[in-house]
Amino acid sequence: MLTARQELARKVLRDKFGIAKFEQFSSHIPPDNRAITAYAANTGPGPSAEDLHVDTKGKISSKWNQKVIDMLLELVLEKRRGEAYAELPERSEGYFRDIVTKQVERVRVYWKQAQAMVKVDGQRESPAEVEQRMVNQKLKKDAIARAYTRRQSVSNYLF
Q1: Is residue 1 scored above 60 in pLDDT?
Q2: What is the DSSP string of 23-37?
Q3: Contact criterion met (CB below 8 Å) for 37 and 57
Q4: I need a labelling partner for 149 at 20 to 30 A (CA). Which of 23, 38, 59, 74 fits?
Q5: At what angle do helices 63-80 and 4-17 cross, to 10 degrees?
Q6: Which residues does 125 contact at the CB level (< 8 Å), separation at least 6?
Q7: Where in the sequence is the domain holding 125, given as residue range(s)?
Q8: CA triplet 41, 37, 71: central angle to 5 degrees?
Q9: Long-range own/partner contacts, residues 2-5 (CB < 8 A, 24 or more apart)
C-alpha cells in the first residue's frame, strides 16, 4: 500500500512525463548522449524543466539524473505545500528525495525492460517480440500477486 507521500511523488512523475501508468514510460526517449556528456563536463545546459528526460542508460547517480531528481523534488515539495496535501505531517527534504529517487529508478526499470534484447541466434527482438515478452512478464507477475493475495485472504480467514 502506497503512503500519501509516495502517491504524491508518483502523481508528480506521471504528470511531468505525461503517463497514466509507469509501464508507459517504456516509450520514453532518453536525452542525447552528447547533451549528457556536455552537462557532466559543465559545458552544456543540462536537463530542461519544460522537456524533462531521464538518462535511462546511465547510472541513477549521474550528474544528469541527479539534476532531474532535483527538478522533480522541487515539484513534489511545491505540490506538498498545496492545500490538497496540507494534512500530511512534515518530513525532511531528504525523505522526499529518497521517494523521488526510488520512483525514478522504477521508471528506468520499465524503460530497460521494454528495450529489444538479443536472442540466442544473435538477432535483436522485433517490436512484436518485445511486446510479447513484456505481456508474458506482466501475466507472470499478476499470477504471483493473485496467489499472494489469496494466501493472505485464506490466512486471515483461518486465523
Answers
A1: no
A2: GGGGG--PPPHHHHH
A3: no
A4: 23
A5: 120
A6: 116, 117, 118, 119, 133
A7: 116-159
A8: 85
A9: 4/85, 4/88, 5/80, 5/88, 5/91, 5/95, 5/96, 5/99
- Do both 89 and 131 map to the same domain? no
Number of domains in the chain: 2
CB atoms within 10 A of CB 17: 16
pTM (2 d.p.): 0.80
Find cell 546511465 and name the residue. 58
Residues 6+ apart with CB under 8 A from 47: 31, 39, 53, 64, 67, 68, 71
Look-up of cell digits 544473435 = 122
Give the C-alpha separation, 19 to 86, whole Å. 25
Do 72 and 62 lie in a common domain? yes
102 and 62, same domain (yes or no): yes
- Is there a single domain that holds both residue 69 and residue 139? no
The predicted-structure confidence for 94-130, as pLDDT tens digits, reads as follows 999 999 999 999 999 989 988 889 989 999 999 899 8
- Do residue 18 and residue 91 come from a single domain? yes
